Amino acid sequence: KAGVTQTPRYLIKTRGQQVTLSCSPISGHRSVSWYQQTPGQGLQFLFEYFSETQRNKGNFPGRFSGRQFSNSRSEMNVSTLELGDSALYLCASSTLDSNNGYTFGSGTRLTVV
Amino acid sequence: TQLLEQSPQFLSIQEGENLTVYCNSSSVFSSLQWYRQEPGEGPVLLVTVVTGGEVKKLKRLTFQFGDARKDSSLHITAAQPGDTGLYLCAGANNQGGKLIFGQGTELSVKP
Asked: Is the pLDDT at A98 greater than 80, yes or no?
């Protein structure tokens, strides 16, 4: 079956701009989580959506937001981009039980210049 | 704030050697998950351990969850160059899809 699909794979943006990233989960998975990965901080949790509702949110500023659609596809948006937002953004999907583990997409590499 | 301390951060060994990666926390987790990540790709799930004291084997990889469900280890026997990659431990605590990740162990196995 198809894995988790993230688009685009690479993105270059200028400071102050905004960006929208997309994630299509594995069919049947209703939970979608987003993570930011940087060399200094590792993988940090952004937020998680289940059945179009945000269930949990990490410690990121309000410039980071997301949503989930009725088909479980999710988007995350970052407004007023800063240089420090340069990172690999990863999306993961799972069934209702998080103890079953997550399937990650290949990520979107965002570079802010 | 829940934290997972993973060690060592870097490991460079010769093919055929054994190694152990440790993941420790002061917090209790409902499960501990191990992932492997290659450059330019997302992490891939290796195993999930749920019960305190649980041991799981995946070919040459052995995973153990501590009795108190606060720590875990990954042991690789007779490492091969194909084992090279970033190994990540992650704790789940039934908080709506949130995983707490360790900093990762960058493993390099030389032929």
From this structure: no
